[in-house]
Specification:
With 419 residues, the protein is an alpha/beta fold. It folds into two domains: 29-83 and 372-408, Urease, subunit C, domain 1; 86-362, TIM Barrel, CATH 3.20.20.140. It contains 13 helices and 16 strands. The chain has helices at 3-18, 96-104, 119-128, 151-156, 170-183, 211-222, 235-244, 257-266, 274-280, 290-313, 333-342, 347-353, 356-362, and strands at 29-38, 43-53, 56-62, 73-76, 81-84, 86-91, 107-112, 137-139, 144-145, 188-192, 227-232, 248-251, 269-271, 379-382, 398-401, 404-408. The strands form three sheets. Strands 1, 2, 3, 4, 5, 14, 15 and 16 form an eight-stranded mixed β-sheet that branches. A five-stranded parallel β-sheet has the order 9-10-11-12-13. Strand 10, helix 6 (211-222) and strand 11 form a beta-alpha-beta unit. Helix 6 runs parallel beside helix 7 (235-244), helix 8 (257-266) packs across helix 10 (290-313) and helix 11 (333-342) crosses helix 12. The protein is globular and about 65 Å long.
Length: 419
């Protein structure tokens, strides 16, 4: 990015940050009489006290609270279950309102997989600085690397104007677009190995990029420690992406067993987004179109079949919604966990897809994804044991994100925290 353009971008971001109120302070918290869900060991720890200080878990001990921090709020959980905050591996949230709706559903970390004008990067920076309190932790991908690049991309990167009106193809154009995205400090590169399924006029089986072209993306991104996520429905495009070395395949509807076997061998993650395909088949929600309804009815059995085969073959699976968490969205991550159980995953395996496995894919497993001293205080409170009934995740009673109580439902928790 030219120095003058970078300066304008930084000044604009500074103006936004200065217009936002000062970061909200965290409140130390002690949860007593809790059943802690250990997703690493697959067990439940009975009668635990969880101490949260400065946004992190300070301790998980057996028995009543001792050494409670001065001024901490003490909550008797009444024997309910504490599970890690959920991680949504594929969203399209681009506003504070959408981020808030994700958080209210129990999502404490989310990976944006496409946003015009780097709205997801802006959300990430506001959240990291503590200004955007009611939001999950955000990982951002910015624009898709795809042959017809978004119109907005060229508005943000007029230096790429030589490709305006043309397709982003070939090594030079692909490297230039990846470099442009990396200059905005994205966390992942998102590419389209095949066309989309969520537009009536597209063919989701059609391959966009060759293995060689996607290998250029992987090489350019990995040089800066950034992984590549490949949207792929068709098997040929998906296989090319896996061979090119992408970190994850998003969707994977028509992947064959040979491609899935290669993914298992290479440790390539599958993010199947089954629940949003089911959304295609019903009125309302993110998609409400006759052509997409017909498409969804033949895609749904296939993605269920693919996800079941992937699980059987040992492909690491990550839960995700592929939703924007908009006012009309009807899909939550809990629905995806139910879909994963439907394809043969145990409740523990499904929960790991939204916690430990997702954290590994996103590269955030050093601070979130499971409950342990030193980890960020990201967790949810559930009425029943999710290792026995994963459907209970649909009814989150409390959400704590970075040590802040974001959601309290019911009357079991006493007085709300002092703001």
């Amino acid at each position: 990015m030219p120095a003058r353009t970078r300066l304008r971008y930084l000044l604009a971001l500074l103006v936004v940050l200065l217009a936002v109120p000062a970061p909200a302070a965290t409140q130390d918290l002690v949860l007593t009489n809790a059943r802690v869900v250990d997703v690493v060991e697959g067990t439940v720890l009975e009668g635990r006290t969880v101490v949260v200080a400065d946004g992190r878990i300070e301790g998980i001990t057996e028995g009543p609270a001792t050494g409670v921090p001065s001024g901490a709020r003490v909550v008797d959980v009444g024997g309910m279950y504490l599970a890690p905050g959920l991680i949504d591996g594929h969203v399209h949230a681009t506003s504070a309102d959408q981020a808030r709706r994700a958080l209210l559903s129990g999502v404490t970390t989310m990976r944006s997989m496409g946003a015009d004008h780097y709205a997801d990067v802006g959300l990430r920076e506001l959240q990291r600085a503590g200004h955007l309190v009611e939001s999950p932790e955000v990982l951002a991908a910015g624009y898709h690397v795809r042959p017809p690049a978004a119109e907005a991309f060229f508005q943000d990167h007029p230096e790429m104007g030589r490709w305006y009106g043309e397709e982003i193809r070939g090594e030079e154009a692909i490297r230039a677009m990846v470099q442009a995205l990396l200059s905005r400090d994205v966390d992942f590169i998102k590419t389209n190995a095949t066309e989309r399924a969520g537009l009536p006029e597209t063919d989701p089986r059609k391959q966009f990029y060759s293995r060689e072209e996607m290998a250029v993306m992987v090489e350019e991104a990995s040089a800066q420690g950034v992984g590549v996520a490949a949207h792929a429905h068709g098997d040929e495009g998906g296989r090319a992406a896996v061979e090119a070395g992408v970190r994850s395949i998003e969707h994977g509807t028509y992947l064959g067993e040979e491609t899935l076997t290669l993914m298992a061998e290479r440790g390539t993650y599958l993010v199947p987004t089954i629940a949003i395909v089911r959304d295609l088949t019903i009125p309302g929600g993110d998609y409400d179109n006759a052509v997409l309804n017909i498409r969804g009815r033949h895609m749904l059995p296939r993605i269920l079949e693919t996800a079941a085969a992937a699980h059987r073959l040992g492909v690491p699976i990550v839960a995700a919604t592929d939703t924007g968490y908009g006012p009309n969205s009807t899909t939550t991550l809990a629905h995806e966990l139910l879909e994963l159980e439907r394809v043969g995953m145990s409740p523990l395996e499904a929960l790991r897809a939204a916690t430990t496995t997702a954290a590994e894919l996103l590269g955030v497993d050093d601070h979130t994804g499971h409950l342990a001293p030193g980890m960020e205080a990201d967790f949810i409170v559930l009425e029943r044991n999710p290792l026995e009934d994963i459907g209970v995740v649909q009814d989150v009673l409390m959400v704590v994100s970075d040590g802040r109580v974001a959601v309290q439902r019911g009357d079991w928790f006493g007085e709300p925290p002092v703001s």
